[in-house]
Design a protein that fits this description.
mainly beta, seven-stranded mixed sheet, 1 helix, about 0% helix, about 50% strand
Length: about 280
């Protein structure tokens, strides 16, 4: 039986990590874990997680843990957490965990509210570009019941995991620029608006142009608060944007991208143009 959760030392504290039981454990431990009397429900997590090229991103989750009366969630060797996976639950193409396990607060003798984080380290290679998109939420719990985590009798260890608890998008962080010129411009003359749509590359840790994407050119007249879409422009083969329009009023020009499942929406700050 493949065990997803094993115990690892993280900053001097024990925490869950996405590992099968190591070979060293298999050689010195015996038995198969029994199914822990536990279940997971009411998971909450952000609808989307935006990840750039280098900075760690932590996303909070919560869930309800229901357990049998013989499960002691306050024991020092009881651990639980939620995690994300891509592909099949039994044979995932990728998994994402937190640096530490969840913290649980009992709400009754057999239920608890558990809170933790998914911690993503793009600079350490936690993600590949193919991993952008929908991930599924799962949760797990393990009770060592006094066994040495480094050399347990696995038949005395309880373990339970559960998949299909929800979904979230893990997206490649996006950037969008705009520049309108000339500034100032005479009324009725042509105005050229340029910019670039780019997104994080999780493999070389740089930002590259997001190609062939529809981006709205929008205008807000000075003294008003609402932008109006003027036209839709498509990014070119390197993510650049360029279009022309007619200057009629003083105001702000910007590009706005609606986003995709792999890349979040982004809007450039407005560029003010004085019309003479």
């Amino acid at each position: 039986m493949r065990i997803r959760a094993t115990v690892a030392a993280v900053s001097g504290a024990l925490a869950l990590s996405a590992l099968v039981v190591p070979a060293a454990h298999a050689a010195t431990s015996s038995g198969t874990p029994y199914t822990l009397d536990a279940g997971f429900s009411s998971v909450t997590i952000a609808k989307a997680i935006k990840v750039g090229t280098t900075n760690e991103v932590s996303t909070k989750y919560t869930y309800t843990l229901t357990h049998g009366a013989d499960v002691d969630i306050t024991a020092e060797d009881f651990y639980t957490d939620a995690f994300l996976y891509r592909g099949s639950f039994d044979d995932p193409s990728a998994e994402l965990y937190g640096d530490n396990g969840a913290t649980c607060t009992a709400t009754s003798a057999t239920t608890a509210t558990c809170t933790g984080t998914i911690d993503i380290h793009p600079a350490d290679g936690d993600l590949t570009n193919a991993g952008a998109g929908t991930w599924t939420v799962a949760a797990e719990a393990i009770a060592f019941n006094g066994q040495d985590p480094n050399n347990p009798d696995m038949s005395k260890v309880g373990y339970k995991d559960q998949d299909g608890l929800g979904t979230t998008l893990v997206q490649r962080y996006s950037k969008l620029t705009v520049d309108a010129s000339p500034e100032p411009v005479y009324k009725g003359k042509s105005l050229t608006v340029t910019g670039k749509l780019s997104r994080a590359n999780w493999e070389d840790h740089l930002y590259h142009g997001y190609t062939n994407q529809p981006v709205k050119l929008q205008f807000r007249k000075a003294g008003t608060s609402t932008y109006t879409t003027v036209k839709t422009v498509y990014s070119d083969s390197v993510g650049n944007l360029k279009t022309t329009t007619t200057a009629s009023y003083d105001g702000y020009w910007r590009f706005s991208f609606a986003g995709t499942s792999t890349t979040p929406a982004v809007t450039a700050a407005g560029d003010y143009v004085d019309v003479k």
